[in-house]
Specification:
This protein is an alpha+beta fold and 64 residues long. The protein has a domain of 40 residues. The chain has one helix and four strands, in the order ββββα. Strands 1-2-3-4 form a four-stranded antiparallel beta sheet. The protein starts with 5 loop residues before the first strand and ends in an 8-residue tail after the last helix. InterPro entries: DUF397 (IPR007278). It comes from Streptomyces laculatispora. This is DUF397 domain-containing protein.
Length: 64
């Protein structure tokens, strides 16, 4: 299966090795870090949207 990974155009790393990449496969959303591409996290669109909404609302600001 040919997975098409995407990363943000706002990636600050010139080498491209410090990014979170996303793909869709088989109805799941896949996530990986470009510097560790063998570790893949699988989730659903609904769960990812809930996480992104929380991040945009500042729910995780205390972690950074």
């Amino acid at each position: 299966m040919d997975i098409q990974w995407r990363k943000s155009s706002k990636s600050a790393d010139a080498e491209g090795d410090n990014c979170l990449e996303l793909a869709e496969s088989g109805g799941e959303i896949l996530m990986r870090e470009s510097d560790n591409p063998d570790v893949i996290v699988r989730t659903t669109r609904v769960k990812l949207q809930a996480f992104l909404s929380g991040a945009k609302a500042g729910e995780f600001d205390d972690l950074v």
